[in-house]
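Researcher: Please predict.
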Amino acid sequence: MEETEGFTDEERAAMKERAKEVRSARRGAKADKEGEVLEKIAEMPEEDRVMAERIHAIIKATAPELSPRTWYGQPAYAKDGKVVCFFQSAAKFKTRYATLGFNEDANLDEGTMWATSFALVGLSAEDEERIAALVKKAVS
């Protein structure tokens, strides 16, 4: 088994962002959560930013009951305070693709096995339709 050196700089930064989010929530900070999401999207490199903006618009249109917020410093969408889905920029952890992920509160159960995350290198009209269907199912 290969030994690791511990967490990467990117992983430590994500954990610090999450800790900051938790502290803010504990203090009862009434921040503009959607504004924070839009700020994080605006900070992304163009390729990720374009996808994140489209996904944000799709989720807002498809599931307005989801509340935008940040989660580990990335755009996420929650229902009753629990993150249902999130977007992770490829640049965040220097990966070759961005990720659209769903947490356990998403109603995506399909038999005994189902996907909980999707790699994104672009968005076609067909992809956008599939994302809308997944989000709709996730909140059903």
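Model: DSSP finds four helices and five strands in the chain.
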